[in-house]
Amino acid sequence: MFYKLGCSFRALYFKENLLGFFYSYLSGLILGILGGVMRRISIINYKGGTGKTSTVVNMAHGMALQGLKVLIVDTDPQGSASHHLGIRTSVTLYDLLIKGLDPEDCIVSARENLDIICANEHLFPAEMKLTTEADREYVLSDRLESLEGYDVVLLDCAPSMNLLNQNALIYSDEILLPVSMEYLSLIGVKQLLKNIKIINKLFDKEIKITKVIPTFFDKRNKKSKDILDSLNRVFPGNISMPIRSCVSLSEAPGVKKTIFEYDPNSKASEDYLELIKEVLSSGKEKRL
Ligand SMILES: Nc1ncnc2c1ncn2[C@@H]1O[C@H](COP(=O)(O)OP(=O)(O)O)[C@@H](O)[C@H]1O
Ligand SMILES: [Mg+2]
Fold it and tell me: Ligand 1 within 6 A of 188 CB?
C-alpha cells in the first residue's frame, strides 16, 4: 500500500519535473520498505461504553477506504465489532486461540480491504481454558505470528482486565485509548496506565499510548471541557481531536453500517477521518 502511494506521488512529480522523478522514486522506495511494518494497535479502556468498538470499526473502514489493508481482531466475547459490521460466522477467535486453527482459516472478509477475526460468546470459556496454558499471556501473539499482508491490525478489547486483554496488549505495540467525557472515565484510565506499566516491566514490552481519544464530546457542555483539560494535563501532546457526540454514530450499528456507509457527511465521519490522519502520521514519526 505504501509502495502504491509512493508510486502515485512519483507520477505527480514526474509531471512537474525530472528531479521530482528521482525524489519520488526514493520516497516510493522508502515507503515500500516501511510498508512492511504492520501496526498492531489495541483499542482499550477498562470502562464500557467509551466508544472503543465504534472507533475500531469506523477507523478500520476509513483506513480500508484509503487503500490500507486492515484486519480487525474482535477480542470482546460480546462480539460487538462483528455485529456492527454485520458479519456472522461460526469460525471465531476461539478457534484460533483454543483449537489452534491458522489465522487465514479464521479471517473473514468484511469490506474491501477490511477483514475480521470475529468473536462471540464462545470466548468466555476460552478465557478459562487459557488460564491453564503455559505462557498464557502469549497465546494470541504466538497464533498470529505468521500473519502478514496487513498494514494495520486493530484489536477491539472488552471493558475488563481479563486475560484476553492481556493477550491483546502483549500482541500490540500501540494503544488507542477512547475516553468518554464522563468523570468516572478517568478512573478507568488510571487503572489502565498502571497495568500498562506492569505489563511493560513484566513482559519486557514497550507498549505506547499513541493517542488518547476524547469521545462523546460536546463543546457546549462544561463537563466535556473539564475532562478534556484533565486529559491534557495527564497526556500533554497526546490527545487527538475529539470525536463529537453524533446521533448517526449511535444509529449506524443498528443497520450494520460504518459511519462512512451510513452518513458520510456527518460530523462523526469528519472526526474519524481526522483521527485516522493523526494516527497514521504519528506512526510515521515513530518509524522515521
Ligand atoms: N461519539 C458518539 N456519539 C454518539 N453515540 C456514540 C458515539 N460513540 C459511540 N456511540 C454509541 O454509544 C454506544 C457505545 O459505544 P461503543 O463504541 O460500543 O463503546 P464500547 O465499545 O467502548 O463499549 C454504541 O451504541 C455506539 O453506537
Ligand atoms: Mg465494545
Answer: no
> pLDDT class for 29, splitting at 50, 70, 90?
very low
- How do strand 107-111 and strand 152-156 relate by DSSP bridges? unpaired
153: containing domain:
38-287
CATH code of 72's domain? 3.40.50.300
Does residue 21 sit in the same domain as residue 72? no
160 & 29 share domain: no
Best mutation site among 78, 176, 217, 250 for ligand 1 pocket (most ligand atoms within 8 Å of CB): 250
- Bigger pLDDT: 35 vs 108: 108
What is the distance in A from the centroid of ligand 2 to the CA of 280? 22
pLDDT given for residue 36 in this prediction: 63
Residue nearest atom 26 of ligand 1, based on CA coordinates: 250
Q: Which ligand is located closest to the Cα atom of residue 269? A: 1
Q: How far apart are CA 148 and CA 36, in angstroms?
A: 9
Backbone angles phi, psi at 179, to 5 degrees: -120, 120
pLDDT tens-digit readout, 168-202? 999 999 999 999 999 888 888 888 999 999 999 99
Same domain? For 118 and 212 the reply is: yes
- Of ligand 1's listed atoms, the one at least distance from the Cα of 252 is 27
d(CA 159, CA 280): 25
If asked whether residues 157 and 201 sit together in one domain, one would say yes
Let me know: does 117 contact 171? Beta carbons within 8 Å: no
Q: What is the pTM of this model?
A: 0.88
| Protein residue with its CA nearest to atom 12 in ligand 1 | 250
Residue 164 Cβ inside 6 Å of ligand 1? The answer reads no
C-alpha grid cell, residue 79 = 462480539
Domain count, the chain: 2
